[in-house]
Amino acid sequence: NAGVTQTPKFQVLKTGQSMTLQCAQDMNHNSMYWYRQDPGMGLRLIYYSASEGTTDKGEVPNGYNVSRLNKREFSLRLESAAPSQTSVYFCASSVGRGQDGYTFGSGTRLTVV
Amino acid sequence: ILNVEQSPQSLHVQEGDSTNFTCSFPSSNFYALHWYRWETAKSPEALFVMTLNGDEKKKGRISATLNTKEGYSYLYIKGSQPEDSATYLCAFMNRDDKIIFGKGTRLHILP
Protein backbone atom coordinates (compact mmCIF):
# COMPACT_ATOMS: atom_id res chain seq x y z
CA ASN A 1 0.00 0.00 0.00
CA ALA A 2 1.37 3.41 -0.97
CA GLY A 3 -0.50 5.29 1.79
CA VAL A 4 0.21 9.02 1.48
CA THR A 5 2.56 10.07 -1.30
CA GLN A 6 4.16 13.50 -1.40
CA THR A 7 6.20 15.07 -4.16
CA PRO A 8 8.80 16.43 -4.42
CA LYS A 9 10.95 15.23 -1.50
CA PHE A 10 13.33 18.18 -1.74
CA GLN A 11 13.08 21.61 -3.35
CA VAL A 12 15.10 24.78 -3.37
CA LEU A 13 13.33 27.96 -4.45
CA LYS A 14 14.42 31.52 -4.88
CA THR A 15 12.47 34.20 -3.05
CA GLY A 16 9.43 35.12 -5.10
CA GLN A 17 9.21 31.88 -7.03
CA SER A 18 6.08 29.78 -6.91
CA MET A 19 5.59 26.07 -6.59
CA THR A 20 3.01 23.42 -5.78
CA LEU A 21 3.52 20.54 -3.39
CA GLN A 22 1.54 17.49 -4.38
CA CYS A 23 -0.09 14.97 -2.07
CA ALA A 24 -2.14 11.89 -2.88
CA GLN A 25 -3.60 9.15 -0.70
CA ASP A 26 -4.97 5.78 -1.75
CA MET A 27 -6.78 4.85 1.48
CA ASN A 28 -10.13 6.43 0.62
CA HIS A 29 -9.69 8.87 3.51
CA ASN A 30 -12.09 11.79 3.72
CA SER A 31 -9.84 14.33 5.41
CA MET A 32 -6.46 15.64 4.29
CA TYR A 33 -4.05 18.07 5.92
CA TRP A 34 -0.93 20.09 5.31
CA TYR A 35 1.47 20.68 8.21
CA ARG A 36 4.80 22.36 8.52
CA GLN A 37 7.57 21.32 10.88
CA ASP A 38 10.10 23.87 12.09
CA PRO A 39 12.96 23.37 14.57
CA GLY A 40 11.81 23.67 18.18
CA MET A 41 8.14 23.72 17.26
CA GLY A 42 5.42 21.14 17.02
CA LEU A 43 3.71 20.32 13.76
CA ARG A 44 1.59 23.31 12.80
CA LEU A 45 -1.50 23.02 10.63
CA ILE A 46 -1.50 25.14 7.47
CA TYR A 47 -4.73 24.06 5.79
CA TYR A 48 -7.02 21.10 5.92
CA SER A 49 -9.82 19.59 3.87
CA ALA A 50 -12.53 17.68 5.70
CA SER A 51 -14.02 16.37 2.48
CA GLU A 52 -13.75 16.70 -1.25
CA GLY A 53 -14.63 20.22 -2.29
CA THR A 54 -13.99 21.86 1.08
CA THR A 55 -10.89 23.51 2.50
CA ASP A 56 -10.29 25.44 5.72
CA LYS A 57 -7.49 27.47 7.20
CA GLY A 58 -5.39 26.06 9.97
CA GLU A 59 -3.05 27.79 12.38
CA VAL A 60 -0.56 29.24 9.86
CA PRO A 61 -2.28 29.72 6.45
CA ASN A 62 -0.71 33.00 5.34
CA GLY A 63 1.30 32.72 2.13
CA TYR A 64 -0.29 29.42 1.10
CA ASN A 65 -3.21 28.22 -0.97
CA VAL A 66 -4.62 24.74 -1.28
CA SER A 67 -6.74 22.76 -3.65
CA ARG A 68 -8.61 19.54 -2.97
CA LEU A 69 -8.62 18.30 -6.53
CA ASN A 70 -10.59 15.14 -5.76
CA LYS A 71 -10.87 12.74 -2.84
CA ARG A 72 -7.33 11.45 -3.38
CA GLU A 73 -5.37 14.64 -3.97
CA PHE A 74 -4.67 17.74 -1.90
CA SER A 75 -2.10 20.22 -3.17
CA LEU A 76 -0.35 23.10 -1.40
CA ARG A 77 0.75 26.12 -3.39
CA LEU A 78 3.23 28.82 -2.52
CA GLU A 79 2.51 31.74 -4.84
CA SER A 80 5.53 33.85 -3.90
CA ALA A 81 7.97 31.96 -1.72
CA ALA A 82 9.64 33.70 1.20
CA PRO A 83 12.60 32.57 3.34
CA SER A 84 10.18 32.22 6.28
CA GLN A 85 8.56 29.36 4.38
CA THR A 86 11.72 27.29 4.58
CA SER A 87 10.45 24.23 6.42
CA VAL A 88 9.61 20.57 6.17
CA TYR A 89 6.08 20.08 4.92
CA PHE A 90 3.99 17.03 5.73
CA CYS A 91 0.77 15.96 4.15
CA ALA A 92 -1.52 13.71 6.18
CA SER A 93 -4.87 12.05 5.82
CA SER A 94 -7.47 10.53 8.11
CA VAL A 95 -10.65 8.53 7.81
CA GLY A 96 -12.76 11.07 9.62
CA ARG A 97 -11.73 14.24 11.38
CA GLY A 98 -8.56 12.80 12.83
CA GLN A 99 -10.03 11.06 15.86
CA ASP A 100 -8.59 7.75 14.61
CA GLY A 101 -5.15 9.17 13.98
CA TYR A 102 -3.35 10.41 10.92
CA THR A 103 -1.36 8.74 8.18
CA PHE A 104 1.53 10.98 7.17
CA GLY A 105 3.45 11.34 3.95
CA SER A 106 7.23 11.25 3.91
CA GLY A 107 7.64 15.02 3.86
CA THR A 108 8.98 17.70 1.54
CA ARG A 109 12.05 19.63 2.62
CA LEU A 110 11.73 23.11 1.15
CA THR A 111 14.45 25.74 1.24
CA VAL A 112 13.77 29.29 0.09
CA VAL A 113 16.89 31.34 -0.56
CA ILE B 1 -4.85 28.94 24.25
CA LEU B 2 -4.49 25.20 23.75
CA ASN B 3 -1.10 23.97 24.84
CA VAL B 4 0.39 20.50 24.67
CA GLU B 5 3.61 19.97 26.58
CA GLN B 6 5.90 16.98 26.32
CA SER B 7 8.66 16.21 28.79
CA PRO B 8 11.46 15.67 28.77
CA GLN B 9 12.47 17.28 25.50
CA SER B 10 15.29 14.78 25.08
CA LEU B 11 16.24 11.57 26.82
CA HIS B 12 19.23 9.21 26.72
CA VAL B 13 18.57 5.67 27.91
CA GLN B 14 20.88 2.69 28.15
CA GLU B 15 19.93 -0.26 25.98
CA GLY B 16 17.89 -2.69 28.05
CA ASP B 17 16.60 -0.08 30.48
CA SER B 18 12.96 0.93 30.68
CA THR B 19 11.82 4.50 30.36
CA ASN B 20 8.77 6.72 30.24
CA PHE B 21 7.83 10.24 29.26
CA THR B 22 4.87 12.55 29.59
CA CYS B 23 2.38 14.44 27.48
CA SER B 24 0.32 17.14 29.24
CA PHE B 25 -2.77 18.59 27.62
CA PRO B 26 -5.89 20.60 28.49
CA SER B 27 -8.24 18.63 30.74
CA SER B 28 -11.37 20.27 29.35
CA ASN B 29 -13.18 19.55 26.08
CA PHE B 30 -11.11 16.39 25.58
CA TYR B 31 -11.84 14.08 22.66
CA ALA B 32 -8.75 12.03 21.84
CA LEU B 33 -5.04 11.75 22.47
CA HIS B 34 -2.66 10.37 19.84
CA TRP B 35 0.87 9.07 20.18
CA TYR B 36 3.17 8.90 17.17
CA ARG B 37 6.64 7.50 16.66
CA TRP B 38 8.83 9.54 14.34
CA GLU B 39 12.15 8.18 13.14
CA THR B 40 14.71 10.51 11.61
CA ALA B 41 14.18 11.07 7.88
CA LYS B 42 10.84 9.29 7.98
CA SER B 43 7.26 10.36 8.66
CA PRO B 44 5.38 10.06 11.95
CA GLU B 45 3.64 6.72 12.44
CA ALA B 46 0.64 6.32 14.69
CA LEU B 47 1.23 4.25 17.82
CA PHE B 48 -1.92 4.76 19.85
CA VAL B 49 -5.20 6.63 19.75
CA MET B 50 -6.75 6.95 23.19
CA THR B 51 -10.16 8.32 23.98
CA LEU B 52 -11.33 7.16 27.41
CA ASN B 53 -10.07 8.22 30.81
CA GLY B 54 -8.08 5.35 32.26
CA ASP B 55 -7.31 3.85 28.84
CA GLU B 56 -4.21 1.70 28.68
CA LYS B 57 -2.89 0.56 25.34
CA LYS B 58 0.01 -1.71 24.51
CA LYS B 59 1.97 -2.58 21.39
CA GLY B 60 4.86 -4.94 22.04
CA ARG B 61 7.22 -3.29 24.54
CA ILE B 62 5.49 0.09 24.27
CA SER B 63 2.45 1.04 26.30
CA ALA B 64 0.54 4.20 27.12
CA THR B 65 -1.87 5.39 29.78
CA LEU B 66 -4.37 8.23 29.75
CA ASN B 67 -5.73 10.50 32.47
CA THR B 68 -8.17 12.96 30.93
CA LYS B 69 -9.29 14.43 34.25
CA GLU B 70 -5.84 15.73 35.10
CA GLY B 71 -4.69 16.10 31.49
CA TYR B 72 -1.73 13.78 31.07
CA SER B 73 -0.63 10.66 29.26
CA TYR B 74 2.46 8.53 29.84
CA LEU B 75 4.29 6.51 27.24
CA TYR B 76 6.35 3.60 28.57
CA ILE B 77 9.04 1.62 26.79
CA LYS B 78 10.18 -1.59 28.44
CA GLY B 79 13.64 -2.97 27.78
CA SER B 80 14.75 -0.25 25.33
CA GLN B 81 16.34 -1.37 22.07
CA PRO B 82 18.35 0.66 19.53
CA GLU B 83 15.40 0.63 17.15
CA ASP B 84 13.38 2.56 19.73
CA SER B 85 15.51 5.64 19.05
CA ALA B 86 13.05 8.17 17.62
CA THR B 87 11.01 11.24 18.48
CA TYR B 88 7.73 10.45 20.19
CA LEU B 89 4.95 12.93 19.48
CA CYS B 90 1.65 13.32 21.21
CA ALA B 91 -1.34 15.16 19.78
CA PHE B 92 -4.39 16.38 21.67
CA MET B 93 -7.75 16.57 19.92
CA ASN B 94 -10.72 18.43 21.40
CA ARG B 95 -14.43 18.13 20.67
CA ASP B 96 -14.21 21.01 18.22
CA ASP B 97 -11.94 18.84 16.03
CA LYS B 98 -8.91 20.97 16.83
CA ILE B 99 -5.67 18.97 17.01
CA ILE B 100 -2.54 20.32 18.64
CA PHE B 101 0.80 18.50 18.49
CA GLY B 102 3.41 18.60 21.19
CA LYS B 103 7.04 19.28 20.29
CA GLY B 104 8.02 15.70 20.97
CA THR B 105 10.41 13.77 23.19
CA ARG B 106 13.58 12.75 21.40
CA LEU B 107 14.72 9.36 22.69
CA HIS B 108 18.29 8.13 22.19
CA ILE B 109 19.11 4.54 23.08
CA LEU B 110 22.75 4.09 24.07
CA PRO B 111 24.37 0.74 23.17
3D structure, described in words:
Chain A contains no helices and eleven strands. Chain A is mainly β and 113 residues long. In chain A, the strands form two sheets. In chain A, strands 2, 4, 5, 6, 9, 10 and 11 form a seven-stranded mixed β-sheet that branches. Chain A is globular and about 35 Å long. By secondary structure, chain B is an all-beta fold. Chain B is 0% helix and 57% strand. Chain B has no helices and eleven strands. Chain B has strands at residues 5-7, 10-14, 19-24, 30-38, 45-50, 56-59, 62-67, 72-77, 86-94, 99-101, 105-110. In chain B, the strands form two sheets. In chain B, strands 2, 4, 5, 9, 10 and 11 form a six-stranded mixed β-sheet that branches. At the A-B interface, strand 10 of A face strand 4, strand 5, strand 9 and strand 10 of B.
- List how many beta strands of chain B DSSP finds: 11
Helix content range of chain B: under 10%
Number of helices of chain B: 0
Helix content of chain A: under 10%
The ordered H/E elements of chain B are EEEEEEEEEEE
> Roughly what is the average pLDDT of chain A, rounded to an integer?
94
Q: What ranges of chain B have pLDDT less than 50 throughout 5 or more consecutive residues?
A: none
Compute the number of helices of chain A: 0
Task: Give a short synopsis of this structure.
Helix content of chain A is 0%, strand content 49%. With 113 residues, chain A is mostly beta strands. In chain A, a hairpin with a 6-residue loop joins strand 5 and strand 6.
Structural features:
heterodimer; A: 113 residues; mainly beta; 7-stranded mixed sheet; 4-stranded antiparallel sheet; 11 strands; B: 111 residues; 6-stranded mixed sheet; 5-stranded antiparallel sheet; globular
Lay out the secondary structure:
The complex is a heterodimer of chains A (113) and B (111).
Chain A (H helix, E strand, L loop, with lengths): L3 E4 L2 E4 L5 E7 L5 E7 L6 E6 L6 E2 L6 E5 L5 E5 L8 E8 L8 E2 L3 E5 L1
Parallel strand pairs in A: 2-11
Antiparallel strand pairs in A: 1-3, 3-8, 4-5, 4-9, 5-6, 7-8, 9-10, 9-11
Chain B lengths: L4 E3 L2 E5 L4 E6 L5 E9 L6 E6 L5 E4 L2 E6 L4 E6 L8 E9 L4 E3 L3 E6 L1
Parallel strand pairs in B: 2-11
Antiparallel strand pairs in B: 1-3, 3-8, 4-5, 4-9, 6-7, 7-8, 9-10, 9-11
